[in-house]
Design goal:
The complex is a heterodimer of chains A (132) and B (126). With 132 residues, chain A is an all-alpha fold. Chain A has helices at residues 25-56, 58-69, 71-98, 105-131. Chain A is built from 4 helices and no strands. The longest helix of chain A is centred in the N-terminal third of the chain and has 32 residues, at 25-56. Classes of the chains: A mainly alpha (132), B mainly alpha (126). At the A-B interface, helix 1, helix 2, helix 3 and helix 4 of A face helix 2, helix 3, helix 4 and helix 5 of B.
């Protein structure tokens, strides 16, 4: 929560997304980390529903199962699988940064592109595993 | 957890809140989730083709019950910490910000407790 407005208005750097900066891989991946995080919070509620439905008995489990087989259910699952893999990979990137590793521009871009490629490949792998 | 040196607090310089413990809690839950997520995704793929009985017997296994319970606690703790920061950063209407912060905490706490009770019911065969 923010503190009361300070007496002196100090200059602030503009927000990373907007007219002041051109889009960069690093800032796009950063905002995607937040967006996938928010989506995964909804996914957490879906997992909680699965647990409650399974504890409730065959009837409630069937209701949950039927929802996952609808088109919105399938789209939600696809989005959640991608979000989980993306947030996992990019979160690992953040943990390395926290340890002071990979902060230089070259490495930050290389790890960024690796996250893009691996998250797509991982989602495809899960897709085929789920079908097969 | 108090991460600040008492002299820093006494001087009243720098951050005045609990930012360091928030940061640390987010990282620790992140590590736990990073370790458990691949296992849970793998388990979910195995259960995707099955039905009610498969899900039941998976959760009735003591080790699975303990790990899924741990996962759900870390998951909702981590989600609450993350959404708190998103709301702090983007919601600038004061009453709405407070409403969302409290609602997030309520939903996460409630869902975590409900998940734990559901796992316990299944694990104890109720």
């Amino acid at each position: 929560m923010s503190s009361p407005t300070p007496a002196k208005q100090r200059p602030l750097s503009p927000f990373m997304i907007g007219p002041y900066y051109r889009p960069q891989l690093t800032s796009m991946l950063s905002i995607a980390h937040r967006a996938t995080g928010v989506l995964l919070a909804l996914g957490a509620l879906l997992v909680a529903w699965w647990l409650l439905a399974t504890a409730g008995g065959p009837q409630s489990h069937a209701t949950f199962d039927a929802f996952l087989r609808t088109l919105p259910g399938c789209l939600l699952m696809a989005g959640l699988v991608y979000s989980l893999i993306y947030h996992w990979l990019n979160g690992l990137r953040h943990l390395f940064w926290d340890a002071g590793m990979g902060l230089d521009l070259r490495t930050a871009y290389a790890s960024g592109w690796a996250v893009v490629a691996l998250s797509l490949a991982g989602t495809a792998a899960v897709w085929f595993a789920a079908r097969g | 957890m108090e991460m600040r040196n008492p002299i820093a607090r006494a001087r009243g310089l720098g951050s005045a809140g609990s930012g360091a413990s928030h940061w640390l809690a987010q990282r620790i839950t992140a590590i736990a989730l990073a370790l458990l997520s691949p296992w849970l995704l793998w388990a979910a793929l195995g259960l995707a083709g099955g039905g009610y009985a498969d899900a039941r017997s998976f959760l009735a296994q003591p080790l699975n019950a303990v790990l899924v319970a741990t996962y759900m606690l870390c998951l909702f703790y981590h989600a609450q910490l993350g959404i708190q920061v998103v709301v702090e950063d983007y919601v600038h209407t004061r009453w709405l910000e407070i409403l969302l912060q409290i609602a997030t905490k309520f939903v996460c706490f409630l869902a975590a407790i409900a998940s734990l009770l559901a796992i316990v019911r299944i694990a104890l065969g109720a």
